[in-house]
């Protein structure tokens, strides 16, 4: 089975020469940047900005993890799958899979938690219903009660 199959958003990444570290493989920090690129593409796909109720409300990354499974060397073409797997009252969890574009070999996976924030006061607030609806539609999630914040 192709690990990318459950993901509706697949974001292409071309490894740059500068992504490598002194050991000749992609630096671990770059994987977080690859996931960030996929996360922003996901936000664009669900039209996150259109769901904002106020301009000072928006997403904030609070947790990010990555499991490094295989070394990657330049040149390489990767794809990052991103999907929401849990929606809470004030946050949602994204899962990521990073695979080689040509062989579908999984090289890394991870998660992140995004909280909806009122930037003016620096506190989390409930997710807009419009955003929840867009995420559920995009990732074909069942209508379930929200998880804990």
What would you give as the CATH superfamily? Hotdog Thioesterase
Q: What is the number of helices?
A: 2
- Structural class computed from helices and strand pairing: alpha+beta
The dominant shape is: globular
Features:
globular; alpha+beta; single chain; Thiol Ester Dehydrase, Chain A; disordered C terminus; 149 residues; 6 strands
3D structure, described in words:
By secondary structure, the protein is α+β, with helices and mostly antiparallel strands. It has a single domain, classed as Thiol Ester Dehydrase, Chain A (Roll), CATH 3.10.129.10. It has two helices and six strands. Strand 3 and strand 4 form a beta hairpin. The radius of gyration is 16 Å and the shape is globular.
Describe this structure in a few short sentences:
With 149 residues, the chain is an alpha+beta fold.
Fold blueprint:
Elements: E1 9-14, H1 28-45, E2 57-68, E3 77-87, E4 91-100, E5 106-118, E6 123-124, H2 129-139
Antiparallel strand pairs: 1-3, 2-5, 3-4, 4-5, 5-6
């Amino acid at each position: 089975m192709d690990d990318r199959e459950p993901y509706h958003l697949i974001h292409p990444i071309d490894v740059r020469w500068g992504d490598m570290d002194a050991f000749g493989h992609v630096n671990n920090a770059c994987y977080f940047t690859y996931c960030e690129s996929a996360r922003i593409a996901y936000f664009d796909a669900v039209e996150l900005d259109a769901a904002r109720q106020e301009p000072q409300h928006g997403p904030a990354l609070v947790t990010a993890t990555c499991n490094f499974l295989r070394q990657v060397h330049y040149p390489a073409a990767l794809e990052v799958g991103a999907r929401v797997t849990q929606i809470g009252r004030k946050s949602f969890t994204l899962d990521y899979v990073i695979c080689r574009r040509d062989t579908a070999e999984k090289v890394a996976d991870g998660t992140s938690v995004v909280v909806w924030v009122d930037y003016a006061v620096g506190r989390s607030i409930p997710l807009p219903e419009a955003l929840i609806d867009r995420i559920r539609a995009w990732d074909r999630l069942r209508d379930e009660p929200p998880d804990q914040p």
